[in-house]
Each structure stands twice: as structure tokens, then as C-alpha cells.
């Protein structure tokens, strides 16, 4: 690895990976699911991870989240990543706002939680119970809970695949919008190629336990404001 001691602090910060995997392997019994994965994700990148079902996408995401102690190889993460799974995993006996700020220790946590709920379009629903929300709204709560922690790295595991088509479009638009505003690095697992091309700056494909494709997209894509899916239907 080359080091450039003369690099200025700000340049070093902007180019330093927020997460780095080197030669990472993971086996379950005799089955080697990951067989040597090298990956750097840098600040502000929006990376999509594609692959067939069972190819190891969620395994890789859990490793990046620090949730898998069984992997070997070089795994370096910065501050705590935030994760959103396909299922929002809200506590049913806590209000929406309580779910968002659960475990937050900052003094104005509840104010930050309210502001984040407003950003995801849920102002006024702070005191609702999770069961009173639609599936799409619950996933917005999960996004608010992740982003209020101001993570350097946001990990999304097929976050929209349980939503119906219209709800999915507005959720995709929201994620793009939040990414532009908060600029965490994002790694989004998806099996939807269109979704990957719509949202990501960089597309990875995992197959046979390795990253077989890693491509930066230089498309000048229409960002959130011009996105055709921005038309939100509130009924
Ligand atoms: P993907 O998210 O790409 O669909 P996963 O990472 O969930 O794939 O799983 C990859 C492979 O690892 C699958 O064959 C799965 O059955 C296996 N696997 C994942 N987690 C475990 C586990 N905790 N124990 C045993 N096998 C597992
Ligand atoms: Mg998976």
C-alpha cells in the first residue's frame, strides 16, 4: 500500500475509505460463501451490491456492519455504521419517535429525532405506534432511526423489496434525497438492477464468493428533484 505523508489533512479525510475489506473470507460449515473479498468504500459514495439470491450479499453487509464475528481477513471500519434491513424492525411497544431516538445519548436527541422524522415525511406522526403506519412509512422510520445517528456509512439490505411498486418509487426518491443532503457513504444490497442503476454511483456484483464486477458509473444522472418518481401520491 502506498502512503503519501504530504497529503493535506482535508484531502486525506475525503479520500480515506470509511470501510475497507481485504481478503475477507466467510464459511458456514464446509460452504465458503465469501472467498476473498477486497473492497474500499469512500466517503459519500453510493454503492449498489448486486448478486443472485444466496450469493453472500447479506453476509457481506453484516460483516461491514460489524455483526459477523466469524469472518476472517482484514476488516477495517470507521465509526459505527447504521443498518436498514428489509424488515424495519421497530419495537411495537414504543412510539415512532421513541424508536428513532432509542439509545441516542445526545442532549437534544428528541429534537433531532423530530427533525429527522420531518425529513422523511413523517412530521406529526411522532406519537403514533408502529402498527398505525403503512409498510412504507415504517421503513421511513427505520431510515430516520439510521440517519439521526449521522453515520459515515449507511448499509441498506434490500430495503424496498417488501414494498409495492409505487411505495418503492417514493422510498427510492427519499433515499436519494437523504443521501444528497447528508452524504453518508451508502452500500445498498439489491437484486434489482434497475434500482442499482437508478441510485448508485458504483455497482458491485458478487458471484462465487468474489466481487466479479466493480464499476463506477459516470452518468450525469437526474438527481432527486428531476427524478420521475418524485411525484408522491398522498391519499
Ligand atoms: P444473499 O443475501 O446474497 O441472498 P446470504 O449472504 O444471506 O445471501 O447467504 C449466502 C449463503 O450463506 C447462503 O447459502 C446461506 O444459506 C448461507 N448462510 C448465510 N447465513 C448463514 C448462517 N448464519 N448459517 C449458515 N448458513 C448461512
Ligand atoms: Mg440477503
From TrEMBL:
Q: Which UniProt keywords apply?
A: ATP-binding, Cell membrane, Membrane, Nucleotide-binding, Translocase, Transport
Domain ABC transporter span(s) in chain numbering? 19-233
Recall the GO molecular function terms of this protein's record. Answer: ATP binding
Does the entry feature the keyword Membrane, yes or no? Answer: yes
Instruction: Spell out the SMART domains in the cross-references.
Output: AAA
**Which PROSITE patterns does the annotation name?**
ABC_TRANSPORTER_1, ABC_TRANSPORTER_2
Q: Respond yes or no to whether keyword Nucleotide-binding is given for this record.
A: yes
What this protein is called in its record is ABC transporter ATP-binding protein
